[in-house]
Amino acid sequence: MVCFAASKARVMCGLILISVKWNSKYKVLIKLYLNSPSLNLSKWVVDSKHYEIILSLTGLLGLISSILIIVIIKSFCFLMEAFMEEFKHLKFQLEEIKLATTNFDNNNVIGKGGFGYVYKGVLRSHCEGRNVVAFKRLDRRYGQGDSEFWKEVLMLSRYRHENLISLLGFCDEDGEKILVYEHASHGSLDHHLSRPTLTWRQRLKICLGAAMGLSYLHDPKGTQQRVLHRDIKSSNILLDENWNAKVSDMGLSKIAPANQQHTFLVSNVVGTFGYLDPMYLAMSILTKESDVYSFGVVLFEVLCGRLCFEYNKGHLRSLVHLWKKNYKQKKLDEIIFQDLKQQMDPSSLETYSDIAYRCLQKSRDERPKMCEVVEKLEIALRFQEIFEESMNYEEIIKTAIPPLVYRSLEELKILLSKGIFLNRGRTWFSLAKDGKKCYMLSARVALID
């Protein structure tokens, strides 16, 4: 251990003499000339344990600045070494990525964003059984850079949830910066908004999954810090082969303490037109409610079957104000995606549209937390499931003898599990515990047939 001690300090005319010892062994005499404007730094050895330095005041300031710069650089290098050591198991070789993407062939491009192009490829190693993966290749011309790259590595390696896209690794080699993700085979949500094949029930499940992922970022369990995403939009919600939602693109996110009820960060405004919280845009103050607003826009996109903006005479026009107006005037029917109307349970629609509208409130205090959004979407999904299941039994119920009386789907299932007569007593129907339907014809009917 090194011990320092200032043994003497004398002030003479324009001169300060400071004598410093360390380890009771070595001695330095510093002569500081206060009146000299020039940089005059010299050093010589008086004996093997005695050093003497002559400095002007300017020289002292320069010396201190140089020492601080060296300390900062060394600290940064130490942190980077520690960082690389922690994440070395995630590192991919550039050669294997080039091989997987056929040297970044354009035919393998599956997307493009602020980070650059995204490629699909097949890896012959890593990935724990996953073969097809996605490679996001940094291209600084599109707006993002090194800080977003390392932030995404940090975030997605430490924050893991079934509704967050999984980071498999990264490559930082020969000037290339590439992120390796699990492949979401159905692409991003924005490409499916206007597709009639995406049912209302599927849409509810997708929104619920995305809400659960975002809720986890806002209020992670344990001692992790809260993450504010800053760029929630339908193109950043990816869909896997089973249509499970995965929140992606964490490069613009901010970290804040998770043990505080309210988090305010003064931040430069980033995000995407149409999804930005108006309060964040006006005041540059970021809160988790800013993400809630953006998610509310996504909920309306899913309901209306279109993106939240349109091109009008060469300019972008946001549709959010129109959507809010239609909700307030009870004219949702005018904006709901036509192909969804016949599928919707009224209670499901009411619960869903109510929470979506609350997310878009101008006042942050009036917006719900993401955990409440999750709760309401679960209720909306349950209403829809009950509605669809009851529709499956509608034809059966019509011919029941005697007529069935029930107050809920659960009561109906209990009655059906006990068995009922249909078709004027010619058919016996029952519902098994696993949901399978069992029909038995009377012997008389069977012989006649």
UniProtKB/TrEMBL annotation:
- Pfam (any one): PK_Tyr_Ser-Thr
Q: Which residues cross the membrane?
A: 53-79
Domain of life, source organism: Eukaryota
What GO annotations for molecular function exist for this entry? ATP binding; protein kinase activity; protein serine/threonine kinase activity; transmembrane receptor protein tyrosine kinase activity
- Gene3D superfamilies found in the cross-reference section: Phosphorylase Kinase, domain 1, Transferase(Phosphotransferase) domain 1
Q: What is the annotated localization of this protein?
A: Cell membrane
GO terms for biological process, alphabetical: defense response to oomycetes
**What is the membrane topology listed in the Swiss-Prot or TrEMBL record?**
Single-pass type I membrane protein
Q: Which GO terms describe its cellular component?
A: plasma membrane
Which residues are ATP-binding? 136
> Keywords for this entry?
ATP-binding, Cell membrane, Glycoprotein, Kinase, Membrane, Nucleotide-binding, Receptor, Serine/threonine-protein kinase, Signal, Transferase, Transmembrane, Transmembrane helix
Residue span, Protein kinase domain: 104-387
Family the UniProt entry places it in: Belongs to the protein kinase superfamily. In the C-terminal section; belongs to the protein kinase superfamily. Ser/Thr protein kinase family.
UniProt name for this protein: Protein kinase domain-containing protein
Q: Which organism is it from?
A: Lactuca sativa (Garden lettuce)
